[in-house]
Amino acid sequence: STGAFWPSMLVAVLFALHPLRVESVAWVAERKDVLAGLFFMLTLLGWVRYVKGPSLGRYLVVILPLACGLMSKPSVVTLPFVLLLLDFWPLNRLDARHFWPRVREKIPLFLLVLASSLVTLRVQAEGGAMRADGLSPIDFRLANAASAYLAYLRKMAWPSDLACFYPLPSQVAGESPWSIGVLGSFALLIGITILVWRSRSSRPWLVTGWLWYLGVLVPMIGIVQVGNQAMADRYTYLSMIGASIPIAWALHELGAPWARRSLVAVIALSCALFGWASYRQVDVWRDHITLFQHALRVTEGNYLAHYNVGTHLLLGSPARLEAARPHLEAAIRFDPTHSGAHLNLGAVEFMEGRVDQAARSFEEAVRLAPTDSEARLSLGAARFEQGRTGDAVSEFERAIALDPENAKAYSNLGTIYLSLGRRSEAQLAFEHALSLFPTMSEAQAGLRRAIRKE
Fold first, then answer.
1. 136 vs 381, which has greater pLDDT?
2. At how many degrees (to 10) do helices 441-452 and 407-419 cross?
């Protein structure tokens, strides 16, 4: 719809080859980004076709891919706003006189994204991703959003230090998040927006590109907090298209022959540099341990990376307990509320024979996550080793109540009953464990002992 081949090519190259795209493609769980992106593009194509010849059939061709995009990933809720930007430029059908008519024709689209947003918020809240006790204060979220907007632009221009997880900045009680740097970021964003708006008549592509970038990021920028990440490379999947438009059209608008040759050179250079950087970034995703060790190298205070590296070392074959311990301790230091880190640190201590220390770690894990059956199971095992048989039985029973299919809890309960001489109860517990996990060797051995009265 722009009729400008080379600047459009530059935007396409930056979208296709930039290393910020790697996370959405390499991480299987985020392939929904790619699918949602496909429907996003189809919606844009459908809208351009509708504008050229409005009809009910063509409008339905806009609604259908939008609905599919929302089902793929709700982050495309900003699509109706993007269509308004396209109406402004390059479609040139939006001005002060036609603003409300252009909004009214998109009411079905706005209703569709509103319904999707309400469903998404409810699902996230019920899933625990938006727990009130897990949310940062609103001033911290706003400050992080201002910093993230500029950080994404920096990573677009110079894609270094890319990580699978960027932790939120630590919050100290009573400390204001509005440092000089954050205030500067906020002021810079406002200043750029004002300058862009003032140039809307002479350079409409600046308005479309900049507001596309700002608007498409709104659902993921962290003002409505989902999860504990400060930012994520995958969030740039569609927003960076907007950020690329001003770059491409600024070169195109120069108009001089040398400028057009420069645009072709920029495209070729972008293909080479970003293609190579993406190739290197793909290698970071080759396995679990490489991914999180890289995150530790390029970020600070990354409790999740420490937790994942420590857990990998703990569960490896053979387990590397001495190497796992400092990572799990660091995870707790950076996030004392991480129940999984306390649980796995307790597992390290238990395997090292430090049962009392393990019990304290398991107690903290249970306190932080009282409905975690694995934490209850581990605490029960520690209590049994401490000789506190009654407490061990209670913990195993709670583990079973939380997870009736926890075969390990039944097997451990059978072991305790067997040690107490309660063979019939032990036999029932082992049989129940084997009904859930027929090849569990501990339960098989325990059942044989219970039946033979060894």
1. 381
2. 30
CB 39 within 8 A of CB 69: yes
Name, in order, each residue with C-beta under 8 angstroms of 295's C-beta and a sequence gap of 6 or more: 163, 164, 165, 302, 304, 305
What element of type H or E holds 41?
A: helix 31-52
Q: What is the mean pLDDT of residues 65-74?
A: 96
- Give the C-alpha distances (Å, rounded to integers) separating 56 from 77, 133, 231: 22, 47, 40
* Cross-strand partners of 231: 166
| Token pair 């930007």 in the structure block, residue | 85
Q: What is the pLDDT of residues 343-370, one digit of tens each?
A: 999 999 999 999 999 999 999 999 999 9
Is 192 in contact with 211 (CB distance < 8 Å)?
Answer: no
Enter the tokens of residue 305: 């990376």
- The pairing of beta strand 229-231 with beta strand 166-167: antiparallel
Cα–Cα dist 29/90, whole Å:
35
From residue 380, alpha-carbon distances to 100, 363, 410 in Å are 65, 10, 12
Contact 443, 433 (CB under 8 A): yes
Query: How long is the chain?
Result: 454
Q: Percent helix, strand, coil in the chain (nearest 5)?
A: 75, 0, 25
- Please report which helix (H) or strand (E) contains residue 448, including its range: helix 441-452
Q: Are 307 and 327 in contact (CB under 8 A)?
A: yes
Q: How confident is the model over 134-193, as pLDDT tens digits?
A: 567 888 899 999 999 999 999 999 999 999 999 988 765 556 788 899 999 999 999 999
CB atoms within 10 A of CB 42: 17
State the Cα–Cα distance between residues 300 and 44, nearest whole angstrom.
39
Which H or E run contains 237? helix 236-253
pLDDT digits (tens, 9 = 90+) for 263-304: 788 889 989 999 999 999 999 999 999 999 999 999 999 999
Phi first, then psi: give them for residue 98, nearest 5 degrees: -105, 10
CA atoms of 313 and 109, how far apart (whole Å): 49
Rounded Cα distance, 199 and 259, in Å: 21
Q: Given a cut of 70, is residue 133 above it in pLDDT? A: no
Q: How far apart are CA 432 and CA 405, in angstroms?
A: 9
Which of 4, 15, 55, 418 lies closest to 243, judged by CA?
A: 15
